[in-house]
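Per reviewer request, we include the raw input and output of the structure prediction for the construct analysed in the revised manuscript.
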Amino acid sequence: MSLEPLLALQDHDTAIDRLRHRWQTLAQRAALEQVETDLAVQRQLLATSAGARDEVRREEQRLDDDAQSTESKAVEVERRLYSGEISSPRELQTMQSDVVQLRRHRSNLEDRELEVMEKREVLDAEVSQLEQTIATLDARQAELRAALAAEEAEIGDQLAAEQAARGEVAKGLSAELLAEYERCRAHARGVGVARLVGNTCQGCHLAIPATEVDRMRKMADGAIAHCDNCGCILVA
């Protein structure tokens, strides 16, 4: 049996190996993994910043409510102060003092509210920036997923074609020869068979002693010879 079909089988296996390696090392996949990592980090930062902003917003609202409530109390005391309902000078003096205290307290609350508002504005800007970054990363993620799917589909089609062609070649080979080829291929890191050109194995590109080459060339058709260096089947 001629060993020439083994070379065709090797060509298909080499192509299959290259396609699988290409599939595993697609640049889009590595880029997508990086984008997904960046997204996870940015979303965590957003959750932290948004939580801090919401807490500050609640504090701001509480201070605003307290300031309005304090002002309402001051207005009510002033109404009673000038309504003529109260005639006692001491009580009127106390009420006047209460109004002053309430307005002072309201002013303090508004000062604190302003400080909290400034803090909230910083957090608002931070959250907005993070949301924009995430939107950009989301768009990039979608773009990379589409590109990766297209590349994988293309490689998948080529891989299916090579595997089908390999299957056709393998049908014409004996089980024993296929088993020996697979054994050599596993031992020689993917090269199960190679052509002998002159005294050089095309599998490992190392020279074989002339006496061994001469012996191989005198072997019967279909007899199997191996490279002394890499162990692959040689086709003279």
